[in-house]
């Protein structure tokens, strides 16, 4: 559904994605990283291609890379070598509507594909560590959204996995929505980039352009 929550749509806990949901990175940083990764893998990336991979516009980034004839492991090894955690943190900004998290009076968890060596400096730089009662940076070991396992792990860490607790997961991508539904949660899709740029419409229990639209 579109639009705001009803008064009776109260949740016992919230889970949130990070990149593209609560925060974003200046385009100049993204463009520079893809230029340097392109040098490493021997392939130039257009602005559109960089946007697709950075924002996960087509769902699975690995599948998209494979469609372009790029080995995902080779790409990600180069990508993480070229990312500077401190520079990325400095180039990351918080969406104004994300401040709603500070008003939540229930447990809040973070489930992100952003790697820990990058995530922690971002949380420090933006001073939002204390927004989250539990957090998980997905890895091959934890699984990746839309796999429900990383979501369930954070639910367990929050101590809200039993007794009929009702939760919601908010994110900007189809993988976030899939992870929510696969874990038995409601899902909020925050469309930061627009349907035209994404090239598709992502469904969700709630579909908004800003968290302000929910309340």
UniProtKB/TrEMBL annotation:
Q: Which GO terms describe its molecular function?
A: phosphoglycolate phosphatase activity
Superkingdom in the source lineage? Archaea
InterPro entries, A to Z: HAD-like_hydrolase_sf, HAD-like_sf, HAD_sf
Q: Which organism is it from?
A: Natronorubrum tibetense GA33
Per the UniProt entry, what are the Gene Ontology biological process annotations, in alphabetical order? DNA repair
Name of the protein? Haloacid dehalogenase
The family database entries (Pfam families) matched by this protein are listed as: Hydrolase
